[in-house]
Amino acid sequence: MSKIALVGFGYWGKNHFKTLKKLKDEGIIEKITVCDLNKNALRNLEKEDEIEICYDWKKLLTSDIDLVSIVSPTPLHYEMAKEFMLRGKDVLVEKPLAMNANECDELIEISEKAGSGLMVGHIFRFHPGVVELRNMIRKGDFGNILNIFIRRQTLRVPRKDMGVLLALGIHEVDIACFLLNEELPETIYADINSYFGNAEEMALIIQKFKNTTAYFYESWIDPSKGKFRELTLIGTNGTASLNFSEPDRITIHQSYLERKQEENFSVVNGGDFIVRLEYSEPLYNELKHFIEESNNKKNYHSNGYVGKRAVELIEKALLSNKQQTFIEVKN
Question: Does the residue 304 lie in any domain?
Answer without folding.
Answer: no
